[in-house]
Amino acid sequence: MSETAALRTTALTELHEQLGAKLVDFAGWSMPVWYDGATEEHHAVRRSAGLFDLGHMGELFVSGPEAGAALDWSLLVDASAMPLGRARYSMICNEAGGIIDDLIVYRLAEERWMVVANASNAGVVAEELHVRSERFDAEVDDDTDAWALIALQGPEAASILQHLVDIELSAIRYYRIDQAQLLGEPAMIARTGYTGEDGFELFVPGAVAVDLWHTLADTGGDRVRPCGLASRDTLRLEAGMPLYGNELSLDTTPFDVGAGRLHKHDAPDHVGRQALVSAAEEPHRHLVGLFVDGRRPARAGYAVLHGGAEIGAVTSGALSPTLERPIAIASVDRALEPGDIVDIDVRGKLVPATVTDLPFYTRP
Fold first, then answer.
1. pTM to 2 decimals?
2. Whole-angstrom Cα distance, residue 323 to residue 235?
């Protein structure tokens, strides 16, 4: 029995094996961490296009006459006021205001929404939505196993995908979703992503995932390459996007991670509202970007010091392929200004780092 035999697989796992990907256990799923090399895959997304298997993400559908109200109660989102075809970044919090997961919510129809949850939290989010929706005329369905999710990300993404769809992609603006035909099957195309580049996330029936992957690769030719989790992580880090388990956790509120805007004081009542009202008025933590001196990356958990006093810790860090220098995100207990100098305890050695605004990278 292989070491990945007990793991969940996506519709593309066998294809990844054929392509020579290194597969790892990620949140209980067998997922490709890289194919030929994470740095090359990272550069492909920044310069042309990359293909990602996101079949491990959770697709949860909430439908019914009171589905919007159920989501208003359950999440930090005014779902019932979302226009059709719109997407919203959101979070689901517990009664104490702690973040259970960050999500993207899509309005598909008058009485139907899709909530996409992180793989590590999809089961918990599904259960929470079931429980929180019981007081409403709404139904929650976990259809993760029925869907494949492929992301095509990069400046060439639109030109590659346009050859395969029956709609004009320029009409799908950022954080929008539309219905289309892909390989003769109904699909949902969202202009969303986790890389800091333009691109699309393609929701298709699992049965056509392999054919779609091959077709995208053939259409893109040398402009597109398969990409794994390692490059996805450095891409999102450069784009200043938080990762659950690093920047986000049950011990953080939206105000601790620069997402306080998601909680609106005049919004309808929702789970965790009172805790978040209090959190908005109390001291909270701050996420800051750091340019780290030298060539050694600062890793999650390394202490951050200012004026000799420990003020927080690195939450994510890596050598940035685009910027060709180490970068990090840190959670600190005081406001810092761009240009401020802090020290990072790298295995007992204090390494200077310069505070900078997030994101580190913004696409042209």
1. 0.96
2. 11
